[in-house]
Each structure stands twice: as C-alpha cells, then as structure tokens.
Amino acid sequence: MKTAIFLCMLWGVAASAAILDVSGFGAVGDGKTDDTAAVLKAVEKAVPGDTIRFATGCFFLTDNIVLTKDNLTVDGNGTLLFDHKPSKDRKMNKLVASGKNITIRNIRITSNAVTRSAAHGLISASNTENLFIDGVDISLSPSVAIWTMNVANLRITNSFIHDQWADGIHISRHSRGVLIANNTIDHNGDDGIGVVSYHDSAPWNKLPRNDSVLITGNIISNTPARGICASGGNLLITGNRIFNTGKAGIICTREGWISEKTLITSNIIGNTGTAEKYGFDFYNSKGTRSGIHVQTNSNLLIADNIISDAKNGGCGITLSAAVDVVVRGNRISDCSRGIQIDSPQNYATPERKMSDELMKQIYANYATVPAFAGSDNLLIDGNFITRMNRDGIYVSGCAERAVTGLVVTGNFLSDNNRGNLDSVRDIWADGLDRAVIRNNFSAGTSAEKPLSPVQGIGKNCKATVFEFN
Prior knowledge:
The protein has three helices and 42 strands. It is mainly beta. It has a domain at 18-147: Single-stranded right-handed beta-helix, Pectin lyase-like (Pectate Lyase C-like, 3 Solenoid), CATH 2.160.20. It has a 15-stranded parallel sheet with strand order 2-4-7-10-12-14-17-20-23-26-28-30-33-36-40, with no helix packed on it. The radius of gyration is 25 Å and the shape is elongated.
C-alpha cells in the first residue's frame, strides 16, 4: 500500500508538469511574423514545473518575455530573435528570469542589433535565485549576452556565447554561489567574462560584493578588452584558456569593492594586449595588456598558469598596489617583462588617495592602515621566466611608497632581453623596504646584448637582502 501511494505521488508530480509548445499557442516561427503575443500566452498558461518549448523555427519577438513564476524551464531547438530598435533609454527586448528556479537550456537567442546601443542582456536576471543556463547559443546582443544582478545560485554552463556588442557574461552586485563553466566565449565587444562588484553612492550600487564564484574550463578568445575581469570575494579562476585579447587576459581590479581571497590557477593565457578591436570599431582598447594583472587587491594566489605572448609592452604578471599575494610555479614566456611589481606614483599622491573604506578593506589584516596603497607582503616563488623582451622580474617602488615585505626566491630565468636593450637584468628592484631576494637562478641570454652585469637593487632600498646565483 505504501509503495502504491508513493508511485501515485510520483505520477501525480509527473502529470502536473506540462510541456507547452509555443506553436500550440499560435507562434509561427518563420523569423518574420511577430510571435510575441503567442509566446506570452504560453508563459501565462505555464504553472510551476512546466516547460515552455520552442521546438523548431525562429520566433520573432518585439517585447520582453518575462518569466515571473517559479520552477519553469525554457528549452527547444528553436531560435528566439529579439527585435532591437536603439533608444535614448537604452532599453532592449530580452528574456527575463525574475522567478526562482528557472532553467534555460538548449535554445538559441539572438537579436537584429547592429551596434552597442542598450543595457542588460538577452538573458537578464536580478533579485532572484537558482538560475540555470545550459547549452544555450547566444549572439548579437546590443549589450551583453547574459546579465545578472543580485542572483544567488547561478549556473552558466556548456554554452556558446559569441558576437555580442559588449561582455559575453556580465555578473554584478551581490551575485553569489556562481558557476561559469565549460563555455566557449568568442568575439564579444568588451570583456569575455565580467564579474564586477560595483559599489558607490547610487542606490543600485549599495549591494554587497559578489561572493563564491568559480570560473573554470571556459575558452575565451577574440575580445577587445579582457578575457576575464573579476572582483569580489572567494573567487576561483582555474583551468580556462584565454587568447587574443585587446587588453589583459585576466584582471582583478577594484570595481568599488576590492577583490580578496582569489585563486588564479592552471589557466593557459596567450596573445594578450593585442590592441585589436576584433570587429567592434567603437571600442577603445587602451589599457593594461598583461597576461594576469592584479591592481588594488589583497589576498591572492596566482599559481601554475602558462602565460605567453603579451603584446605592446604587456607583462606576464603585473602586480600594482597589490597586498598579500603569492605568485608561484607559473611558466611565463615571450612578454615584455615576466613579472612586474610596482607601487605607482599615482597611488601615492593626495589627490589620488583611495577612500578610507577601500584602504580598510585592503589592509583589513594589518594592525595599522598605511597612508597610501602599495604592493606589500608578496612572495614570488618558483616561476620559470624565459624569452622576455626586457627584464625577467622587475620591481619598482617610489619615494612616497616603497614595495614592502617582498620575497623573491627559487625562480629560474633564461634567455631574457630578447629585445637587445641596454641595462636589462634578469632581476632588478628599487624602492624596497624589508625585502629578501635570494636563491634565484639565471641561465643567461643568447641575445646580442647580454644582460646587465648588475643584477640587483637600486639605491632606494632599506633592510633588503639580495643574493643572485
């Protein structure tokens, strides 16, 4: 009897979940007829547990399709083609997930946009939870492909995201419990993946930062900005392949909130900083061009990445006003410099001083907060650096703000100064306070101009140990 009751309960659940094919509500799917009203009828008819199916065809949509009910699925082999007419308010037609427990899978979503002229994404969600996007092909958004704000438990997996006019994926403002995995992201008009935690006086920017984000197994290419731009807490960026970026491969920089507790591991990054616009003529591709760039952040591990071919002066790894960072076991080749560390002058001037709030975030684990942000408490250990155009490791503090508490040890440097420049070293450092540089190995160079015989430190160093092998 109990078994029979249990089976009936299962049958009852199955029976209550309907598949609503939009063609049954009058949708034509010829790519020309306005199917908005028919699709909205299917959405209105759906109850929690139902699937709204776009079986075949191209469905022309002239308004938002908003999923307000919980526990709905959208799938099918069809295409959602959103009409886009640029407007002063930058509105766009899109698929909006406002209910909880929404799944969007195995469909194509596109628009007829011809320039960057809107905000949000062809899939948009805010102030909700449990959004699952899997196996979706998204293209030609007038803004980003996927946009979220304040979404808990978000999964974006196995999707092809290409040819947008802005970011491929844009996650912002207290999105947490996020997995972005195994997507192919190609030819987008800004960053491939942007995880940004805006925070300022505007009401919509007062949410907490993003938290607990895993970005893994993605292939990101041909983007005029960064492959991945990430800010928030508890970020893991691992196992991605990033190449052909106008700016940096991966950047962690403050977007109102700083990033901390971030791991960047086992990524393959190549051909960054190309300054190419990749077909998006409006975009200014000036900016940092390094394979990995960390600026105004704290508590990071950068380990076991393979980085090559940073163009236009880009370094393999750049740390700028970065605090409590370990750089270990990376293989860096064919860049301007292998690893560059600085405390830039513009962080040490009163007019550019960061807010007390940000300084307290960066130096939360310190007994006192310094006057200006700098590069402090860094370990550069066991990296293999070869064929740099200039120096292997280059550290530069400034008079107002030294690089403090630096340890450089166990690094192997080979065949650098490929640019045949004067006064280039495998390791050079100036503007240090309480640093240790020892047990590094230089194999020399095959360039016409040898490395400078002065492998060491400048005059503006205090309490520093330097030994070179």
